[in-house]
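Example 4.3 (complexes with small molecules)
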Amino acid sequence: MSKLKLATVWLDGCSGCHMSFLDMDERLLALAELVDVVYSPIVDAKQFPDQVDIALVEGAVASVDDEKKIRKIRAHTKTLVAMGDCAITANVPSMRNPIGPAAILDRAYKENATVQQQIPCVVVPQLLNKVRPIHEFVKVDVFLPGCPPSADTFHAALTALVTGEPLDVSALTRFGA
Ligand code: SF4
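Answer. The structure with iron/sulfur cluster bound is encoded below.
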Protein backbone atom coordinates (compact mmCIF):
# COMPACT_ATOMS: atom_id res chain seq x y z
CA MET A 1 0.00 0.00 0.00
CA SER A 2 1.43 3.40 -0.93
CA LYS A 3 1.76 5.89 1.87
CA LEU A 4 -0.81 8.65 2.34
CA LYS A 5 0.36 12.25 2.18
CA LEU A 6 -0.20 14.06 5.49
CA ALA A 7 0.11 17.80 6.05
CA THR A 8 -0.18 19.77 9.26
CA VAL A 9 -0.83 23.50 9.15
CA TRP A 10 -0.47 26.26 11.74
CA LEU A 11 -2.81 29.24 11.42
CA ASP A 12 -3.71 31.44 14.43
CA GLY A 13 -3.07 29.03 17.30
CA CYS A 14 -0.54 28.60 20.08
CA SER A 15 1.14 25.47 18.60
CA GLY A 16 -0.21 23.44 21.53
CA CYS A 17 -2.14 21.22 19.13
CA HIS A 18 1.08 20.41 17.30
CA MET A 19 2.79 19.70 20.63
CA SER A 20 0.01 17.28 21.51
CA PHE A 21 0.35 15.64 18.07
CA LEU A 22 4.04 15.07 18.87
CA ASP A 23 3.00 13.62 22.25
CA MET A 24 1.98 10.48 20.36
CA ASP A 25 5.65 9.66 20.97
CA GLU A 26 6.61 6.16 19.78
CA ARG A 27 3.24 5.76 18.07
CA LEU A 28 4.55 8.31 15.54
CA LEU A 29 6.96 5.64 14.31
CA ALA A 30 4.10 3.28 13.48
CA LEU A 31 2.22 6.15 11.85
CA ALA A 32 5.30 6.97 9.75
CA GLU A 33 4.96 3.51 8.15
CA LEU A 34 1.58 4.60 6.78
CA VAL A 35 2.00 8.30 5.98
CA ASP A 36 4.55 10.73 4.62
CA VAL A 37 4.51 14.14 6.28
CA VAL A 38 4.78 16.34 3.20
CA TYR A 39 4.16 19.78 4.73
CA SER A 40 4.23 20.93 8.35
CA PRO A 41 5.94 23.36 10.73
CA ILE A 42 7.89 20.30 11.90
CA VAL A 43 9.38 19.47 8.47
CA ASP A 44 11.39 21.55 5.99
CA ALA A 45 8.92 21.71 3.06
CA LYS A 46 7.79 25.30 2.50
CA GLN A 47 5.32 24.81 -0.38
CA PHE A 48 1.94 23.15 0.11
CA PRO A 49 1.93 20.20 -2.34
CA ASP A 50 -0.49 19.86 -5.26
CA GLN A 51 -2.36 17.02 -3.61
CA VAL A 52 -2.52 15.99 0.03
CA ASP A 53 -4.63 13.15 1.45
CA ILE A 54 -5.10 14.48 4.98
CA ALA A 55 -4.45 18.00 6.29
CA LEU A 56 -4.62 18.72 10.03
CA VAL A 57 -5.22 22.45 10.52
CA GLU A 58 -4.47 24.12 13.85
CA GLY A 59 -5.73 27.59 14.67
CA ALA A 60 -8.38 30.05 13.59
CA VAL A 61 -8.46 32.37 10.59
CA ALA A 62 -7.28 35.76 11.83
CA SER A 63 -5.52 37.45 8.93
CA VAL A 64 -5.69 37.89 5.18
CA ASP A 65 -2.77 35.45 4.93
CA ASP A 66 -4.62 32.81 6.99
CA GLU A 67 -7.64 33.11 4.71
CA LYS A 68 -5.52 32.71 1.56
CA LYS A 69 -3.77 29.74 3.11
CA ILE A 70 -6.92 27.87 4.19
CA ARG A 71 -8.54 28.32 0.77
CA LYS A 72 -5.42 26.98 -0.94
CA ILE A 73 -5.19 24.05 1.47
CA ARG A 74 -8.84 23.15 0.87
CA ALA A 75 -8.32 23.18 -2.89
CA HIS A 76 -5.43 20.71 -2.61
CA THR A 77 -6.63 18.40 0.19
CA LYS A 78 -8.90 15.34 0.19
CA THR A 79 -9.71 15.23 3.91
CA LEU A 80 -9.42 18.47 5.86
CA VAL A 81 -9.36 18.10 9.65
CA ALA A 82 -10.05 21.04 11.98
CA MET A 83 -7.52 20.22 14.69
CA GLY A 84 -8.44 21.63 18.09
CA ASP A 85 -10.85 24.21 19.45
CA CYS A 86 -9.24 27.26 17.81
CA ALA A 87 -9.79 25.76 14.37
CA ILE A 88 -13.32 24.63 15.31
CA THR A 89 -14.69 27.63 17.25
CA ALA A 90 -11.94 30.30 16.99
CA ASN A 91 -11.54 29.81 20.77
CA VAL A 92 -8.69 31.81 22.34
CA PRO A 93 -7.73 33.98 19.30
CA SER A 94 -11.34 35.19 19.03
CA MET A 95 -10.99 36.90 22.42
CA ARG A 96 -9.85 39.92 20.42
CA ASN A 97 -13.13 40.11 18.49
CA PRO A 98 -14.94 42.54 20.83
CA ILE A 99 -11.89 44.83 20.83
CA GLY A 100 -11.07 44.95 17.13
CA PRO A 101 -7.72 44.79 15.32
CA ALA A 102 -6.83 48.50 15.50
CA ALA A 103 -6.85 48.60 19.30
CA ILE A 104 -4.87 45.35 19.46
CA LEU A 105 -2.19 46.68 17.11
CA ASP A 106 -2.00 49.98 19.01
CA ARG A 107 -1.56 48.13 22.29
CA ALA A 108 1.15 45.82 20.94
CA TYR A 109 3.17 48.20 18.79
CA LYS A 110 2.61 51.64 20.33
CA GLU A 111 1.46 51.56 23.97
CA ASN A 112 3.71 48.64 24.95
CA ALA A 113 6.71 49.63 22.83
CA THR A 114 9.54 51.67 24.29
CA VAL A 115 11.21 52.35 20.91
CA GLN A 116 9.89 52.69 17.35
CA GLN A 117 6.28 53.12 18.33
CA GLN A 118 4.66 52.37 15.00
CA ILE A 119 2.45 49.71 13.48
CA PRO A 120 4.48 47.58 11.06
CA CYS A 121 3.47 47.70 7.40
CA VAL A 122 5.53 44.66 6.37
CA VAL A 123 5.93 41.12 7.79
CA VAL A 124 2.86 41.34 10.08
CA PRO A 125 -0.07 40.24 7.88
CA GLN A 126 -3.20 42.37 7.64
CA LEU A 127 -5.60 41.30 10.38
CA LEU A 128 -9.23 40.49 9.60
CA ASN A 129 -11.83 42.41 11.60
CA LYS A 130 -12.97 39.20 13.30
CA VAL A 131 -11.15 35.95 14.03
CA ARG A 132 -13.32 33.09 12.76
CA PRO A 133 -13.23 29.29 12.70
CA ILE A 134 -12.10 27.60 9.51
CA HIS A 135 -15.49 26.08 8.62
CA GLU A 136 -16.77 29.62 8.03
CA PHE A 137 -14.35 29.82 5.08
CA VAL A 138 -14.08 26.29 3.68
CA LYS A 139 -15.71 22.89 4.03
CA VAL A 140 -14.28 20.87 6.92
CA ASP A 141 -14.47 17.07 6.76
CA VAL A 142 -13.51 16.12 10.33
CA PHE A 143 -13.65 18.07 13.60
CA LEU A 144 -11.16 17.00 16.26
CA PRO A 145 -12.10 18.91 19.43
CA GLY A 146 -9.94 19.67 22.45
CA CYS A 147 -7.60 22.40 23.62
CA PRO A 148 -5.56 20.62 22.54
CA PRO A 149 -6.90 17.22 21.42
CA SER A 150 -5.07 14.60 23.46
CA ALA A 151 -2.37 12.40 21.93
CA ASP A 152 -4.72 9.42 22.34
CA THR A 153 -7.40 11.29 20.42
CA PHE A 154 -4.94 12.10 17.63
CA HIS A 155 -3.86 8.51 17.45
CA ALA A 156 -7.40 7.10 17.36
CA ALA A 157 -8.56 9.61 14.76
CA LEU A 158 -5.53 9.28 12.50
CA THR A 159 -5.63 5.48 12.71
CA ALA A 160 -9.24 5.56 11.54
CA LEU A 161 -8.53 8.06 8.77
CA VAL A 162 -5.47 6.25 7.49
CA THR A 163 -6.80 2.69 7.64
CA GLY A 164 -10.42 3.52 6.77
CA GLU A 165 -11.55 1.55 9.79
CA PRO A 166 -14.25 2.85 12.19
CA LEU A 167 -13.11 5.28 14.87
CA ASP A 168 -12.50 3.56 18.22
CA VAL A 169 -14.33 6.06 20.43
CA SER A 170 -13.23 4.22 23.57
CA ALA A 171 -9.68 5.40 22.76
CA LEU A 172 -10.63 9.09 22.86
CA THR A 173 -9.43 10.82 26.01
CA ARG A 174 -9.46 14.32 27.36
CA PHE A 175 -6.16 16.17 27.45
CA GLY A 176 -4.27 15.21 30.60
CA ALA A 177 -6.46 12.15 31.26
FE1 SF4 B 1 -3.53 26.21 21.46
FE2 SF4 B 1 -5.78 25.16 22.44
FE3 SF4 B 1 -5.87 26.64 20.25
FE4 SF4 B 1 -4.75 24.21 20.15
S1 SF4 B 1 -6.91 24.64 20.56
S2 SF4 B 1 -3.94 26.09 19.24
S3 SF4 B 1 -3.83 24.10 22.21
S4 SF4 B 1 -5.26 27.34 22.31
